[in-house]
Amino acid sequence: MARRTEGKAILKQGPSTAWERAVVHTAKVFATVTLIVSILLAFGFTGAGIPIWLSLPLSLLIAYLVYAGMTRKIRRRRRILARPFPTEWEEILQREVVFFRALEPEDQMRFRRDLQVFLGEKLITGIGFDLDTTTRVLTAASAVIPIFGFPDWEWDQISEVLVYPGRFDQSYDFEGGNDRNTLGMVGTGALNRLMILSKPDLHAGFRNSTDKKNVGVHEFAHLVDKSDGVIDGLPGVGLEQAAIGPWIELVRRKMEEIRRNDSDINPYGLTNEAEFFAVASEYFFERPGLMERKHPELFAMLSKVFSQNLGERAAALARERKRGRPKFGRNSPCPCGSGVKYKKCCLDRSRRSPR
Q1: Nearest of 25, 112, 106 to residue 71 by alpha carbon
Q2: What's the helix, strand, coil split of the chain in %, to 5?
Q3: Domain that holds residue 65
Q4: Are residues 276 and 292 in the same domain?
Q5: Residues 111, 10: one domain?
Q6: Taking Cα atoms as reference points, which of 92, 211, 231 lies closest to residue 157?
């Protein structure tokens, strides 16, 4: 009974995001059209012996089912967000994710929400080992970081992340052989909507926050690039039509600098324009202050692409890197700076917050 009551309360909530409002509007339009068509058809069948008092309720039921089916994802998401944010997840974010620690308290709340949605809606599967909570949370954090500038982003390009116990080869084999040098990949063809990540490299990307490398962010940057349907290094978001030419020319010049050994950007970016975009994204999110100093034009472009002004957050990121990996628990001082224990401050607010 409690679960049923909770479900009714969730259903009564109005649409709170642009995505929800768009879905609800479309569902209402389709349900209305379905109702009108059903009524017209019902009146056409009344001469066949179907009483009008039966045909009208049937029309309403059909319209309701159309609306309920189209808004099912909203109700499922609200149930996900109605759950308390686990303390273990918070401890992992505070310990491992510098990007999260550098956020203002209200932005941390949104980060938690996005992470909770990703973990609730996408499959993360360990291949050859039992998946641990830290790996799940770091995978989701990798997804949230590059799209944090887009509050209504939907990860429609992916349904499952496969986490391997180590690096793998071109045949996706992680055992034996000497050519297991792939850290991660976005699937194509038969593997469409799948991503593969190496667990050790995923963890290393967060543990070392100064080397401008993070394989999780790298692979999800490929999916941001794919928002226009193709992974080509020309992202389908953030850049206006007039900026496409300058972006292509900037990438050409930056790749030439790498080729001349006159750049601190990962030389893997020479593979092609798509890989340049991905390695530049790693650099942008991990060392934004350094990129702004050494590559100001590239930094400005990526700020537009990802709709994030990391220049304003660079000092906080640098401070958190120097502070290292803090020990954190329910009884630790709340990271918002209130002076109150975490369990009585932001943790309590996250549990009571209307989602």
Answers
A1: 25
A2: 60, 5, 30
A3: 2-79
A4: yes
A5: no
A6: 231
> Which residues pair with residue 194 across a beta bridge?
160
Encode pLDDT of 197-243 as tens digits.
999 999 999 999 899 999 999 999 999 999 988 999 999 888 888 99
Output the six-digit token pair for 234: 């020309």
Distance between CA atoms of residues 309 and 312, nearest Å: 6
Does the CA dihedral 134-136-137-142 come out positive or negative? positive
Together in a domain, 61 and 99: no
CA 253 to each of CA 194, 241, 264, 300: distance values in angstroms, whole numbers, following the listed order: 32, 20, 14, 15
57 in any annotated domain: yes
Q: What is the CATH number of the domain that holds 289?
A: 3.40.390.10
Torsion, Cα 209 212 215 216, to 10 degrees, reads 60
Is pTM, for the whole model, over 0.70? yes
**335 CB-contact burial (10 Å; exposed 0-12 / middle 13-18 / buried 19+):** buried
**Per-residue pLDDT tens over the stretch 314-330:** 888 888 887 766 665 56
Residue by residue, DSSP assigns 249-301 as HHHHHHHHHHHTT---S-GGGGS-HHHHHHHHHHHHHH-HHHHHHH-HHHHHH
Picking from 79, 99, 118, the residue at the C-terminal end of a domain is: 79
Q: Provide the token pair at 309.
A: 């002004």
Residues 42 and 103 reside in one and the same domain: no
Neighbours of 2 (CB within 10 A): 6
Contact indicator for 152, 17 with CB cutoff of 8 Å: yes
Is 342 within a domain? no
105 and 243 in a single domain? The answer is: yes
